[in-house]
Design a protein that fits this description.
By secondary structure, the protein is α+β, with helices and mostly antiparallel strands. The chain contains two helices and six strands. Strands 1, 2, 3, 4, 5 and 6 form a six-stranded antiparallel sheet that branches. Strand 5 and strand 6 form a beta hairpin. Helix 1 runs antiparallel to helix 2. The longest helix is centred in the C-terminal third of the chain and has 54 residues. The chain starts with 17 loop residues before the first helix and ends with a helix.
């Protein structure tokens, strides 16, 4: 029958070694790093990522123009079917009028099922080329949550790997201390001469 004594590394006793005390303190530090530091670092990284993503989206909104365009040609629909944002889309020619009344056209991605004459939202870069729309709030939150989660998990894994390495070194030292002490004690117990 095995008896487990809790907190023996913290109490003074003749079997406790210095490596036991060091290992006990390292366990406390690892617990603090896992349950306090890793989540705080993840939250800080998520907050930083949220700010960066909002700045990028603001920059995209400033440099891109949003126009309502009319689909005039679906002839390229069978040539370029792709999946964007969870829905199928294809490239089609669209027309729109600028603020000064001139007609412009470009090839843009439009949702599947769009017919000739339908009005679609198109985002344009400064050169007038069709570009994807800026990210919305949900994508920004998803980006920052993913960044924070991976930071927390990575920090926790690093702490656990470091703890495992320190425990291996502590175990080696503990066994060396036990061997040294046994070398001194064994001759007295067995009445052998060293």
């Amino acid at each position: 029958m095995r008896t487990r004594v809790r907190g023996w590394r913290w109490r003074r006793n003749p079997l406790r070694r210095r490596s036991d005390v060091v290992e006990a303190w390292i366990t406390v530090v690892v617990a603090l790093l896992l349950f306090v530091a890793a989540p705080l670092l993840g939250a800080a990284t998520a907050w930083w990522g949220y700010g960066q993503a909002r700045a990028i989206v603001a920059e995209q909104r400033a440099e891109r123009d949003h126009v309502r365009a009319t689909v005039v040609d679906r002839s390229t629909a069978t040539l370029s079917t792709e999946q964007l944002g969870g829905q199928h889309s294809y490239r089609a020619t669209v027309h729109w009028k600028t603020a000064d009344g001139t007609e412009k056209s470009t090839t843009a991605r439009v949702p599947a099922g769009t017919r000739h004459g339908d009005t679609v939202d198109v985002w344009l870069d400064p050169r007038g080329r069709s570009v994807p729309p800026p990210s919305d709030g949900a994508e920004i939150w998803q980006h920052s949550a993913t960044l924070g989660s991976f930071t927390t998990i990575g920090t926790a894994l690093t702490v656990l790997l470091a703890h495992r390495a320190v425990r291996a070194v502590a175990l080696r030292r503990r066994m060396a201390e036990w061997d040294r002490d046994w070398a001194l004690t064994e001759p007295r117990w067995t009445h052998r001469r060293a």
